[in-house]
Amino acid sequence: MKLGMFTSGYQRNPLEHCFEDAKRFGYDYIELWGGRPHAFAPDLKAGEIEDVKRLIDKYEMPVLGFTPEHNAYPYNFMIGSERQREDAVEYLKLSLDMAKEMGSDYMLISPAHAGYYVSRKEVWERMEKTVKELVDHAEKVGVKITIETLTPYESNVFRSAMDAKELLDKIDSPYLVTMCDLVPPYVQNESIMNYLDLLGDKMYHMHIIDGTSGTDDHIMPGEGSIPMPELIKDLKYVGYNRTATLELVLGYINEPRFYARRAIDNVRKMMADAEY
Protein backbone atom coordinates (compact mmCIF):
# COMPACT_ATOMS: atom_id res chain seq x y z
CA MET A 1 0.00 0.00 0.00
CA LYS A 2 1.44 3.35 -1.08
CA LEU A 3 1.04 6.20 1.42
CA GLY A 4 0.46 9.75 0.21
CA MET A 5 0.57 13.21 1.75
CA PHE A 6 -2.44 15.51 1.32
CA THR A 7 -1.29 19.12 1.03
CA SER A 8 -4.38 21.07 2.13
CA GLY A 9 -3.07 21.46 5.67
CA TYR A 10 0.08 23.16 4.37
CA GLN A 11 -1.73 26.08 2.75
CA ARG A 12 -0.12 28.60 5.14
CA ASN A 13 3.32 27.22 4.24
CA PRO A 14 5.26 27.35 0.98
CA LEU A 15 4.34 24.51 -1.36
CA GLU A 16 7.95 23.37 -1.33
CA HIS A 17 7.55 22.32 2.32
CA CYS A 18 5.08 19.66 1.17
CA PHE A 19 7.52 18.09 -1.24
CA GLU A 20 10.46 18.42 1.11
CA ASP A 21 8.55 16.82 3.99
CA ALA A 22 7.04 14.06 1.85
CA LYS A 23 10.56 13.10 0.85
CA ARG A 24 12.16 13.27 4.30
CA PHE A 25 9.29 11.61 6.19
CA GLY A 26 9.00 8.67 3.78
CA TYR A 27 5.78 9.30 1.89
CA ASP A 28 5.42 7.58 -1.48
CA TYR A 29 3.56 10.33 -3.31
CA ILE A 30 1.63 13.58 -2.97
CA GLU A 31 -2.09 14.15 -3.39
CA LEU A 32 -2.03 17.81 -4.33
CA TRP A 33 -4.82 20.05 -3.05
CA GLY A 34 -5.92 22.37 -5.84
CA GLY A 35 -6.57 25.65 -4.11
CA ARG A 36 -4.84 28.95 -3.62
CA PRO A 37 -2.12 29.72 -2.78
CA HIS A 38 -0.63 26.44 -4.04
CA ALA A 39 -2.28 24.76 -7.02
CA PHE A 40 -5.47 26.45 -8.18
CA ALA A 41 -6.02 25.18 -11.72
CA PRO A 42 -6.31 28.60 -13.44
CA ASP A 43 -3.04 29.66 -11.77
CA LEU A 44 -1.37 26.44 -12.93
CA LYS A 45 -2.60 27.08 -16.47
CA ALA A 46 -1.16 30.62 -16.30
CA GLY A 47 2.31 29.20 -15.76
CA GLU A 48 2.56 28.14 -12.13
CA ILE A 49 2.45 24.48 -13.08
CA GLU A 50 6.14 24.85 -13.91
CA ASP A 51 6.80 25.43 -10.20
CA VAL A 52 5.00 22.18 -9.36
CA LYS A 53 6.89 20.23 -12.00
CA ARG A 54 10.17 21.65 -10.71
CA LEU A 55 9.36 20.41 -7.20
CA ILE A 56 8.36 16.98 -8.50
CA ASP A 57 11.75 16.67 -10.18
CA LYS A 58 13.79 18.23 -7.35
CA TYR A 59 12.42 15.93 -4.65
CA GLU A 60 11.69 12.93 -6.88
CA MET A 61 8.19 12.95 -5.41
CA PRO A 62 5.33 12.23 -7.82
CA VAL A 63 1.93 13.89 -7.69
CA LEU A 64 -0.26 10.82 -8.18
CA GLY A 65 -3.48 12.60 -7.31
CA PHE A 66 -4.90 16.07 -7.85
CA THR A 67 -7.82 17.22 -5.70
CA PRO A 68 -9.15 20.59 -6.92
CA GLU A 69 -11.13 22.55 -4.34
CA HIS A 70 -14.78 22.41 -5.38
CA ASN A 71 -16.98 21.65 -2.39
CA ALA A 72 -17.86 25.21 -1.49
CA TYR A 73 -17.28 28.74 -2.74
CA PRO A 74 -17.06 29.40 -5.65
CA TYR A 75 -17.49 25.90 -7.13
CA ASN A 76 -20.04 23.24 -6.23
CA PHE A 77 -21.47 21.46 -9.23
CA MET A 78 -24.44 20.18 -7.21
CA ILE A 79 -26.09 23.52 -6.43
CA GLY A 80 -27.09 26.72 -8.22
CA SER A 81 -28.15 27.55 -11.75
CA GLU A 82 -27.25 25.63 -14.88
CA ARG A 83 -24.75 28.35 -15.74
CA GLN A 84 -23.08 27.86 -12.39
CA ARG A 85 -22.97 24.08 -12.93
CA GLU A 86 -21.42 24.56 -16.36
CA ASP A 87 -18.83 26.91 -14.89
CA ALA A 88 -17.87 24.28 -12.31
CA VAL A 89 -17.60 21.65 -15.04
CA GLU A 90 -15.28 23.83 -17.12
CA TYR A 91 -13.13 24.45 -14.05
CA LEU A 92 -12.89 20.71 -13.38
CA LYS A 93 -12.07 19.99 -17.03
CA LEU A 94 -9.20 22.45 -16.76
CA SER A 95 -8.18 20.69 -13.55
CA LEU A 96 -8.07 17.40 -15.46
CA ASP A 97 -5.81 19.02 -18.04
CA MET A 98 -3.47 20.22 -15.29
CA ALA A 99 -3.53 16.80 -13.61
CA LYS A 100 -2.40 15.29 -16.90
CA GLU A 101 0.43 17.78 -17.26
CA MET A 102 1.67 16.98 -13.73
CA GLY A 103 1.65 13.26 -14.46
CA SER A 104 -1.20 12.50 -12.05
CA ASP A 105 -2.89 9.13 -12.20
CA TYR A 106 -6.24 10.43 -10.95
CA MET A 107 -8.23 13.54 -10.13
CA LEU A 108 -10.58 13.43 -7.15
CA ILE A 109 -14.10 14.85 -7.21
CA SER A 110 -16.85 14.74 -4.60
CA PRO A 111 -20.52 15.71 -5.04
CA ALA A 112 -21.19 18.27 -2.31
CA HIS A 113 -24.44 19.49 -0.76
CA ALA A 114 -27.27 20.12 -3.22
CA GLY A 115 -29.36 22.31 -0.95
CA TYR A 116 -32.63 21.61 0.83
CA TYR A 117 -35.18 22.20 -1.93
CA VAL A 118 -34.43 19.54 -4.53
CA SER A 119 -35.74 16.02 -4.95
CA ARG A 120 -33.55 12.92 -5.10
CA LYS A 121 -34.50 12.56 -8.78
CA GLU A 122 -33.29 16.09 -9.58
CA VAL A 123 -30.13 15.60 -7.55
CA TRP A 124 -29.18 12.36 -9.25
CA GLU A 125 -29.97 13.64 -12.72
CA ARG A 126 -27.68 16.61 -12.12
CA MET A 127 -24.91 14.46 -10.65
CA GLU A 128 -25.03 11.88 -13.45
CA LYS A 129 -25.01 14.58 -16.14
CA THR A 130 -22.02 16.31 -14.54
CA VAL A 131 -19.98 13.19 -13.89
CA LYS A 132 -20.64 11.92 -17.43
CA GLU A 133 -19.34 15.19 -18.90
CA LEU A 134 -16.22 14.98 -16.75
CA VAL A 135 -15.64 11.31 -17.56
CA ASP A 136 -15.85 12.06 -21.29
CA HIS A 137 -13.06 14.61 -20.81
CA ALA A 138 -11.08 12.27 -18.56
CA GLU A 139 -11.11 9.64 -21.31
CA LYS A 140 -9.66 12.18 -23.74
CA VAL A 141 -6.82 13.31 -21.47
CA GLY A 142 -6.09 9.92 -19.91
CA VAL A 143 -6.55 10.75 -16.22
CA LYS A 144 -8.93 8.73 -14.03
CA ILE A 145 -11.69 10.43 -12.07
CA THR A 146 -11.92 9.10 -8.51
CA ILE A 147 -15.26 10.04 -6.98
CA GLU A 148 -15.45 10.32 -3.20
CA THR A 149 -18.38 9.74 -0.89
CA LEU A 150 -18.86 12.34 1.86
CA THR A 151 -20.37 12.55 5.33
CA PRO A 152 -23.94 13.76 5.98
CA TYR A 153 -22.39 16.94 7.37
CA GLU A 154 -20.87 17.66 3.94
CA SER A 155 -23.36 16.29 1.43
CA ASN A 156 -26.94 15.11 0.99
CA VAL A 157 -26.08 13.53 -2.36
CA PHE A 158 -23.33 10.90 -2.36
CA ARG A 159 -22.58 9.33 0.99
CA SER A 160 -22.32 5.52 0.93
CA ALA A 161 -20.73 2.58 -0.82
CA MET A 162 -24.13 1.75 -2.31
CA ASP A 163 -24.41 5.30 -3.71
CA ALA A 164 -21.01 4.79 -5.33
CA LYS A 165 -22.03 1.43 -6.78
CA GLU A 166 -25.26 2.87 -8.19
CA LEU A 167 -23.41 5.66 -9.98
CA LEU A 168 -20.69 3.36 -11.31
CA ASP A 169 -23.35 0.99 -12.65
CA LYS A 170 -24.89 3.89 -14.56
CA ILE A 171 -21.64 5.35 -15.92
CA ASP A 172 -19.46 2.50 -17.08
CA SER A 173 -15.96 3.73 -17.90
CA PRO A 174 -12.45 2.60 -16.98
CA TYR A 175 -11.78 6.27 -16.25
CA LEU A 176 -14.39 6.46 -13.45
CA VAL A 177 -13.46 4.80 -10.17
CA THR A 178 -14.29 5.40 -6.53
CA MET A 179 -12.66 5.47 -3.13
CA CYS A 180 -13.24 5.33 0.62
CA ASP A 181 -12.43 8.07 3.07
CA LEU A 182 -12.69 6.30 6.43
CA VAL A 183 -14.71 9.02 8.15
CA PRO A 184 -17.97 8.91 6.09
CA PRO A 185 -18.71 5.23 6.68
CA TYR A 186 -17.58 5.40 10.28
CA VAL A 187 -19.85 8.29 11.30
CA GLN A 188 -22.82 6.65 9.52
CA ASN A 189 -22.32 3.22 11.11
CA GLU A 190 -21.47 1.75 7.72
CA SER A 191 -18.84 -0.95 7.29
CA ILE A 192 -15.55 0.41 5.97
CA MET A 193 -14.52 -2.95 4.52
CA ASN A 194 -17.87 -3.13 2.71
CA TYR A 195 -16.44 -0.62 0.23
CA LEU A 196 -13.89 -3.20 -0.89
CA ASP A 197 -16.41 -6.05 -0.91
CA LEU A 198 -19.13 -4.14 -2.76
CA LEU A 199 -17.04 -2.16 -5.24
CA GLY A 200 -14.30 -4.64 -6.15
CA ASP A 201 -11.75 -3.34 -8.65
CA LYS A 202 -13.53 0.02 -8.80
CA MET A 203 -12.44 0.71 -5.19
CA TYR A 204 -9.31 2.47 -6.34
CA HIS A 205 -8.11 4.74 -3.54
CA MET A 206 -8.43 5.52 0.18
CA HIS A 207 -8.12 8.41 2.58
CA ILE A 208 -6.73 7.00 5.81
CA ILE A 209 -7.67 9.26 8.68
CA ASP A 210 -9.20 8.72 12.10
CA GLY A 211 -12.56 10.00 13.28
CA THR A 212 -15.06 10.05 16.11
CA SER A 213 -18.81 9.62 16.27
CA GLY A 214 -21.04 12.62 15.75
CA THR A 215 -18.62 14.79 13.77
CA ASP A 216 -16.80 14.86 10.45
CA ASP A 217 -13.53 15.86 12.12
CA HIS A 218 -10.46 14.28 10.54
CA ILE A 219 -8.20 13.15 13.36
CA MET A 220 -4.60 11.92 13.41
CA PRO A 221 -4.48 8.20 12.50
CA GLY A 222 -4.45 6.17 15.68
CA GLU A 223 -5.75 9.01 17.88
CA GLY A 224 -9.50 8.83 17.21
CA SER A 225 -12.15 6.14 17.67
CA ILE A 226 -11.72 4.04 14.52
CA PRO A 227 -10.04 0.69 15.32
CA MET A 228 -7.17 1.61 13.04
CA PRO A 229 -4.61 -1.16 13.80
CA GLU A 230 -7.25 -3.80 13.09
CA LEU A 231 -8.27 -1.99 9.90
CA ILE A 232 -4.69 -1.95 8.64
CA LYS A 233 -4.41 -5.68 9.35
CA ASP A 234 -7.61 -6.37 7.40
CA LEU A 235 -6.41 -4.26 4.46
CA LYS A 236 -3.28 -6.41 4.40
CA TYR A 237 -5.37 -9.58 4.68
CA VAL A 238 -7.53 -8.71 1.66
CA GLY A 239 -4.48 -7.60 -0.33
CA TYR A 240 -5.26 -3.91 -0.74
CA ASN A 241 -2.09 -2.55 -2.34
CA ARG A 242 -3.23 0.65 -4.00
CA THR A 243 -2.89 4.26 -2.84
CA ALA A 244 -3.91 5.58 0.56
CA THR A 245 -3.53 9.27 1.32
CA LEU A 246 -3.17 10.36 4.95
CA GLU A 247 -5.70 13.17 4.82
CA LEU A 248 -4.71 15.67 7.45
CA VAL A 249 -6.66 18.84 6.77
CA LEU A 250 -7.29 22.12 8.56
CA GLY A 251 -7.26 20.77 12.12
CA TYR A 252 -3.47 20.60 11.94
CA ILE A 253 -2.81 23.74 9.93
CA ASN A 254 -0.82 25.45 12.68
CA GLU A 255 2.01 22.87 12.57
CA PRO A 256 1.52 20.74 9.46
CA ARG A 257 5.14 19.58 9.36
CA PHE A 258 5.03 18.08 12.86
CA TYR A 259 1.73 16.34 12.26
CA ALA A 260 2.62 15.05 8.79
CA ARG A 261 5.58 13.27 10.37
CA ARG A 262 3.47 11.86 13.20
CA ALA A 263 0.77 10.62 10.80
CA ILE A 264 3.08 8.54 8.66
CA ASP A 265 5.04 7.28 11.67
CA ASN A 266 1.77 6.08 13.22
CA VAL A 267 0.57 4.34 10.07
CA ARG A 268 3.95 2.82 9.19
CA LYS A 269 4.09 1.29 12.68
CA MET A 270 0.60 -0.18 12.22
CA MET A 271 1.67 -1.58 8.85
CA ALA A 272 4.78 -3.15 10.42
CA ASP A 273 2.68 -4.65 13.21
CA ALA A 274 0.32 -6.09 10.60
CA GLU A 275 3.18 -8.25 9.32
CA TYR A 276 2.99 -10.42 12.44
UniProtKB/TrEMBL annotation:
InterPro entries: IolE/XylAMocC-like, Xyl_isomerase-like_sf, Xyl_isomerase-like_TIM-brl. It is an enzyme of class 5 (isomerase). Keywords: Isomerase. Transmembrane segments: none annotated. GO terms for molecular function: isomerase activity. NCBIfam families: PRK09856.1 (NF007360). This is Fructoselysine 3-epimerase.
